[in-house]
Predict the structure of N-acetyl-gamma-glutamyl-phosphate reductase.
Amino acid sequence: MTKIKVSIVGASGYTGGELLRLLLFHPNVEINQVTSESYTGKFVYKVHPNLRKATQLKFSSASELQQCDVLFLCLPHNSSQNKIDFYKSIAPKIIDLSADFRLKNQDEYEKWYGHKHVRPELLKEFVYGIPELHREEMKNANYISSAGCNATASILGLYPLFKNDLVFEDRTVIEVKAGSSEGGNKVNEGSHHPERSGVVRSYMPTKHRHTAEILQELSFGKNIQVHFSATAIDIVRGLLATCHVFLKKDLEEKDIWKIYRDAYGNEPFIRIVKENDGIYRYPEPKLLSGTNYCDIGFKKDENSNRLVVISAIDNLMKGAAGQALQAFNIMFGFDERTGLEFTGLHPI
Amino acid sequence: MTKIKVSIVGASGYTGGELLRLLLFHPNVEINQVTSESYTGKFVYKVHPNLRKATQLKFSSASELQQCDVLFLCLPHNSSQNKIDFYKSIAPKIIDLSADFRLKNQDEYEKWYGHKHVRPELLKEFVYGIPELHREEMKNANYISSAGCNATASILGLYPLFKNDLVFEDRTVIEVKAGSSEGGNKVNEGSHHPERSGVVRSYMPTKHRHTAEILQELSFGKNIQVHFSATAIDIVRGLLATCHVFLKKDLEEKDIWKIYRDAYGNEPFIRIVKENDGIYRYPEPKLLSGTNYCDIGFKKDENSNRLVVISAIDNLMKGAAGQALQAFNIMFGFDERTGLEFTGLHPI
Amino acid sequence: MTKIKVSIVGASGYTGGELLRLLLFHPNVEINQVTSESYTGKFVYKVHPNLRKATQLKFSSASELQQCDVLFLCLPHNSSQNKIDFYKSIAPKIIDLSADFRLKNQDEYEKWYGHKHVRPELLKEFVYGIPELHREEMKNANYISSAGCNATASILGLYPLFKNDLVFEDRTVIEVKAGSSEGGNKVNEGSHHPERSGVVRSYMPTKHRHTAEILQELSFGKNIQVHFSATAIDIVRGLLATCHVFLKKDLEEKDIWKIYRDAYGNEPFIRIVKENDGIYRYPEPKLLSGTNYCDIGFKKDENSNRLVVISAIDNLMKGAAGQALQAFNIMFGFDERTGLEFTGLHPI
Amino acid sequence: MTKIKVSIVGASGYTGGELLRLLLFHPNVEINQVTSESYTGKFVYKVHPNLRKATQLKFSSASELQQCDVLFLCLPHNSSQNKIDFYKSIAPKIIDLSADFRLKNQDEYEKWYGHKHVRPELLKEFVYGIPELHREEMKNANYISSAGCNATASILGLYPLFKNDLVFEDRTVIEVKAGSSEGGNKVNEGSHHPERSGVVRSYMPTKHRHTAEILQELSFGKNIQVHFSATAIDIVRGLLATCHVFLKKDLEEKDIWKIYRDAYGNEPFIRIVKENDGIYRYPEPKLLSGTNYCDIGFKKDENSNRLVVISAIDNLMKGAAGQALQAFNIMFGFDERTGLEFTGLHPI
């Protein structure tokens, strides 16, 4: 069997490392190159110590990139767009994990990111990377832009409700609880352990850029608002989105069940988690570490028309590398679950 | 100087232990008795190891209670109301830290607590225990009912806005992130360390009983709704309430500042925390461990009329024992800060 | 290909759940039954929520056990020995994960466990379950007794030194730092989150039963002592053994390197971890969550003949279920790594 | 009453901030100046957010230092010795919290610190800062050098045994488990939260500089060795020293009790912690956060002559700022406990 030759640009970061970990065990993949400008020439396990004994690969410089079948871009935001022609010359297919090509509307990009987009004409060439919403487009796509982690959890949690026009969109409040790996591997004052440990830090009460993606994917042609906040807590991996929506008509929980089952019943990576007893009655991100699942639960308020939708993912997996690999599998016609079988640990 | 003789009923729990810690160092207080049915005859430091070398007190049984000046009741909910006549016979003044006498309306009590109130005629004798809202009543009160911890943070965060009729009350969404000490010192399946560690657990997405207190204190004669959820995270002490409110008119942040300053400018235990830089820009519960502060911050959304109000307390202090002691100080005309001077640790 | 039919007795605990997780993905295994007396008839994912969507298995009662090829016993200590005849009647091969058959010497068992062994004549039928020491015996074994987690890390860390008679055995001090999953899934006062969180708890400064296994495997016919202590810290999975040994002759670090390379150079699950720079210079248990690795490092004291040997494992994997599966693979002639390929997460 | 005028040099670090917190509430102290070169002109609460509303002090530059009664030096190591004449010109009494003047022997300093001491003739002018060992000298001292945190816990734990010649000194193994605040407030790769969280990191298996202090204080004229290692764990404050010593003669636990009682019976900040039941049977650093206690416990091994001594402190309090304030109180004849009354929190 011929293997797909892939390279990862920016493989020394957390997202790149996670993708590399997955690709090393993918039966249809041959890793061609992994690049890092800071660690060129070094063994990847020096940066990703979990890969000791798993690989003898070394980092290359992006300038040494050779032709391959697929290029994964795991670069900081605002990098891909500046060198996109070069990357296109390296591989016919690109999966970009940065924010550069997520938004289809140039104005929205510039509003939320605060600077001009260098290549706005390419925005529409990229398929937005959530497989559950864009699977068909992905099958023939050359360019995919993976979704933001907070956006992924929020969109997957709310999609069936918004699509079916069941909620007052503008009243939606989304509160994400996020771990420290979301901030990447660069040290900063706020990530210093004595300061970051034990926090419940309102790091982005308004203006989070992922809001723009949520609006794009959930507006269905309308002009809607959603109200997003993010709070950092003392976990490393994982995020939970608690989404408060207000129903237009009086639905019971069994109706909601049906709506979610209709939307996601065949999805390999979505689980509806809603138990009446036990201690894991709703989605719990710690159970998802290393998995590609998005777990979704909900609870209807008996005293009002509020529905609380709870959505959990591993930000580095379903929120980044796992999502990208799932898209890759779709792109090439592999079983979507290939390389993504890990079921998570308990206890952890 | 004559000291006030106080006894604590139910002193082996977390709230009772915290209150005991505070009272031991209060210059105007003499501790008469501390009761525990499970630990009668044992040294209190066997249960509260932080009090080693601080006291040689032993637990008594409640049946041995002697006359004193004030009785603090730190019992499980639904206990005080059943023996209230006995407690009244012991002391002329009572501060109850349970939920039994918080709600003034019997129907509301029965709706949220799911059972009949045994002594509904007494509900109105108790002053609701948040000093910032009920200071004048406390000065002449004999009976005070301390507020719930989640309610305290939510009410203090929202009071100036609701009182001045600045928000659409029914759209309010309150999301509390809570620590494990809120659940008390009784072991249960969900508190087992391997299961409780690292969680982001939606333990009460709807129907949290503290909602009733919030409605009581913030309705100002109207019939309002608020939407409350609570998520358990991996901290022991402290809680953060993230409150999403929607403004009736277009207020700028400097207007909001003024409203909070007017409401709380002279309050010894409320700090407005809102910085433009640094890593502690908003309230942070870990900084409040052991203190009686309620820190309040806010952020106006530039894209909508949403205001995010962020309120943090130590649930065992301002949310329980500290609040009760502050009320006690007011009751007896002491400086409110007496015994509550601890300013918190950093780093922690 | 015919699959091996296996059953797990006591599959609702942490060790049994971990083993089940591994076996579900083992290509040569068919899971016949998993038993639990408390959860008979319940879906296993109710107890092991990480297995949602991975299996529809339900728990049986041990009394319903059917014939199979291998029985894994994941019972509390002092259970296997009482029903061993029954288990032998169910399957020709047994891998016992409890402590019942680890010690070959009946007197030692009774000294450390404080009670009579019911079937001492069987002690010698069980091969002690560390593959790196007993691989050849395992190939033809019918009965294997998996090693204790603390013992596994300590023995693997020290084996090359003791075997080669390089240290003063009696001066050895071993200090294990352990997570809360080691205590199993039964709630107790000490495992209550507010009490267990943040601890550095000297839970077993002396008399830890795993000491007996260390002595058994490292004595090589001599009468030796080692000094073992265990401290509980705020992690769930993983343990680190810091072993202080004193060298009989003046060896340099490169000599030590050679000794470990000779002992473990071909071992699939042992990695020598010793870096001169970076932040993961020595073994780090958090990197091992879900993996079967034992990482071993060391540092020679320049001022004395002390060598500090550092050994890390995941207590539920290499310290229990992973070790048992590795032994199973050896028993049946499979590649030892089958089902144990997971390389661990970073960051985590 | 005239207050003592004190200034803190280097008050923006963790140790300086902790000292400032204590001094602000000391009834006999007036804070003159607090210096920081990086934050000159800024409010101290911008750096120490726990001091919001507690003080309106601003940082000065050390170049602006005015005459005062006592100078506390909270500088990085190797700073005090270079400007000691200047500091002496500012205040007649100095308490240095760095390592510069801890060792009395110049050769030892240079061996462990790897560079020349600039002012070796001053080494003997400084009293080593552990009050329990040097109280009498402190009463007339002008210069005190506070001890290292790991050294403090180790020395206090072992002092009664070494002083009474009860152990084979050279066999002593000390294992410290330490929190992240020990590393100070400077960000580095190893303190990045995703990397530092959950670690059991062997950061200093050998060669820890605090070993030199332990040797100095415990040698009593002999030439001894002790074997020290330090492991970083996921706590912020606090450290536990597990000390393995080997007794020269057969002492029972009640004999050991007597030895510790004789040594520390009247000490206000030492507690012997050794319970037969309960969950806090030995010293536990989390209970000590914010306190000046050193808790000491022990366990005799029934199978050998090993005694495990367990010693816990808050590294920023008894290991730094609290110790310094206790010495200050002795220097000026105040009750040693003044300003150090905080008894610690439970749960935490």
Observations:
- Chain B touches chain C at residues 14, 179-181, 185, 187-189, 191-198, 234, 236 (CB under 8 Å).
- The domain at 150-314 of chain B is CATH 3.30.360.10 (Dihydrodipicolinate Reductase; domain 2).
- Chain B has a mean pLDDT of 98.
- Residues 164 and 215 of chain B are 15 Å apart (CA to CA).
